[in-house]
Design brief:
two-stranded antiparallel sheet, 7-stranded mixed sheet, 9 helices, alpha/beta, Aminopeptidase
Length: about 290
């Protein structure tokens, strides 16, 4: 990569003794590639960003965790989708492998987004070659870095915990076309209905956030998608939890600017990371591996 080419992602290594904790923020990127030829203005595109999530969790390396953050936007390529989750109607020709577009693709937000807030991103079909180029340039290197971090951490400690970090719009239910009898929680913890993470870890995160005064839901409306589904295998001592934060509690959704409460939310998350660090240091699976 030449010095003039913006970095696609940054892997922040622990700056103190390492914990068996890997965090990744795949949707907080704000650097828009030059070849992203969309008809939408930046003001509309930014509604797709998980803006500032990497900063909310920025204390992770100083507490012993690894933190990976993407710099390109999810509307260009969504790292939390599988490689076959592509809308064939977006393409100018047949894809060279079988496709399996899912519900997110139906809503316009598959591997390659079709729309933001219902507004079309493109006035033309995308060439198969340009989509393949995005995958090779962005998707594969990010996933390789995350996979390596998870594998190396587990090899060292015998177990690994992964936090997949996101934020959600205040009208998430509406965007997902879900009718809910209750308002959106401040934090949504997704473990794919209990299948990707040990219950005690999820309970620790929930209890800490509730003690800080936040509302917390599990798997409603976000259960977690491709990343935690691949990483989270509790039977193999691999635990993965998706954490969504309701955007208005820390920023202005229209301007994307940090609100006056940003520092409070950031501090509360840092204290959550401290609680997680204590939990992991005392975890019996690690003691068993280290003895």
């Amino acid at each position: 990569m030449s010095p003039q080419t913006p970095a696609l992602f940054t892997l922040h290594q622990p700056s103190v003794p390492q914990l068996p904790l890997v965090c990744d923020s795949p949707h907080s990127g704000t650097t828009y590639p030059a070849d992203f030829q969309t008809v939408l203005p930046l003001s509309e595109l930014r509604a797709a960003e998980d803006t500032h999530v990497e900063a909310l969790w920025g204390a992770a390396p100083a507490l012993g965790a690894t933190l990976l953050e993407a710099h390109f936007p999810r509307s260009y390529l969504d790292l939390n989708r599988s490689l076959d989750d592509i809308d064939p109607a977006l393409l100018d020709g047949p894809w060279p492998a079988p496709l399996s577009p899912g519900e997110k693709t139906r809503l316009g937000s598959g591997l390659i987004w079709r729309s933001v807030k219902g507004l079309p991103l493109y006035d033309r079909p995308l060439s198969v070659a340009e989509v393949q180029a995005r995958i090779e340039r962005c998707y594969r290197p990010y996933h390789a870095a995350l996979s390596d971090a998870v594998a190396q951490t587990q090899a060292r400690f015998g177990a690994v915990w992964h936090l997949n970090l996101h934020s959600m719009p205040n009208n998430a239910y509406e965007r997902l076309q879900i009718k809910s009898p209750h308002p959106l929680a401040d934090f949504v913890l997704g473990d794919r209905d209990g299948s990707t993470c040990e219950p005690a870890f999820v309970a620790l995160v929930e209890a800490h956030l509730r003690a800080k005064g936040y509302t917390v839901a599990r798997n409603d409306p976000y259960k977690g998608v491709a990343l935690i589904a691949r990483i989270g295998q509790p039977a193999l001592n691999r635990h993965s939890l998706q954490i969504e934060i309701r955007r208005p509690i820390y920023m202005d959704e229209q301007t994307r600017e940090r609100s006056a409460d940003f520092g409070t939310v950031q501090r509360d998350i840092t204290e959550l990371l401290q609680a997680i660090a204590g939990y992991l240091r005392a975890h019996p699976a690690l003691r068993a591996e280290q003895d």
